[in-house]
Write a structure and sequence with these properties.
Blueprint lengths: L4 E2 L7 E2 L8 H13 L5 H5 L4 E6 L2 E7 L5 E4 L1
Antiparallel strand pairs: 1-2, 3-4, 4-5
């Protein structure tokens, strides 16, 4: 199970737990993946809308924000 995320800035996020707590192999792979990938703030994607369409590999997905502040991604 991946570590939970906490965001100190609205654009970049960091894991709440050290990668080493995930186990030796998982921690190394998780740390390498998070070092390469930057997080995008959901407000930048939604731009004030409740939902946005995302095209990925020829399919269209819908990213929707709920009233409780959760995100739902559907195909």
């Amino acid at each position: 199970m991946p570590a939970s995320m906490t965001c100190a800035s609205p654009v970049l996020c960091a894991p709440a737990e050290p990668a080493a707590s995930l186990g030796t192999d998982a921690g190394v792979h998780y740390a390498a993946a998070t070092a390469r990938a930057a997080a995008v703030d959901s407000r930048a994607l939604l731009q004030g809308q409740k939902a946005v369409a995302i095209s990925h590999n020829g399919s269209v997905y819908r990213l929707q924000a709920t009233k409780l502040g959760k995100l739902i991604l559907t195909k």
